[in-house]
Amino acid sequence: MAARHRLLVALLIGGPVASEIDGIRRALGSNQLGRIPPHLTLIPPTNVTDDALTLAERIVREAAGSSDPVELTLGPPDTFSDNQSVLFLAVSAVPSLTVLREALLSGPFAGRDRTDRAFVPHVTLDSRPIRRRPDVVGPRRVHDLGRGRDARPARTRPLRPAPFLDDAFELRPSP
Predict the structure, then answer these.
(1) β-pairing verdict for 74-80 and 83-91
(2) Which of 9, 51, 101, 115 is geometrically suited to a Cys-Cys bond with 43, CB 3.0 to 4.6 A?
(3) pLDDT at 18
(4) Are 135 and 72 in contact (CB under 8 A)?
(5) Minimal CA–CA distance to 171: which of 4, 23, 56, 75?
(6) Which residue range is the domain that position 102 belongs to?
């Protein structure tokens, strides 16, 4: 039997925005703090065989290479209607994010689009059986924290693939 690799595709959030998110996670007592960097999952963890690994890498590179810059607005905090145990920051569903995600849903990632509910772009803050109300964090957008009410969201550059954890991929802004 061919070896399998567990892959995911995510946008990592860095810099001051990641620090703000980690501050919220710390205040919530999140068990993800220090283990999982702030990120937005585009393709959930997927088992990929050795013979499909090169194709998976090519799909991620091509999707990232053809992507326009992605500008996202984070917040307010929310939970999934069918799973109150996950507290997250909502992410604006801008067209470029949708185009990027759709470009990834082929090859070994085909079929990873859920048919039972729509894709909900989000950044997880905490996940546990007992949930606090979403407004415990407050309705302010993360990019506004410490920068004033009129702060604009940070812009990112075109994305490129890079190693993430063991056998996964991330898409992060190029330097």
Answers:
(1) antiparallel
(2) 9
(3) 93
(4) no
(5) 56
(6) 4-173
The string of pLDDT tens digits covering residues 20-50 is 999 999 999 898 888 899 999 999 989 999 9
Averaged pLDDT for residues 13-21: 92
Reported confidence tier of residue 172, pLDDT bands at 50, 70, 90: very low
Strand-pairing partners, residue 77, are 89
* Residue pair 117/153 in contact by the 8 Å Cβ criterion: no
DSSP-assigned letters across all residues of 15-76: HHHHHHHHHHHHHHT-TTTTTS-SEEEEEEEEEEEHHHHHHHHHHHHHHHHTPPP----EEE
Q: Hunting for tokens 């205040």 — which residue is that? A: 27
How many domains are contained in the chain? Answer: 1
Which pLDDT value is given to residue 156?
35
- In this structure, what CATH number is given to the domain that contains residue 169? 3.90.1140.10
Rounded Cα distance, 24 and 26, in Å:
5
Amino acid code (one letter) for 90: A
Strands 159-164 and 168-173: antiparallel
The secondary structure element, H or E, covering residue 161 is strand 159-164
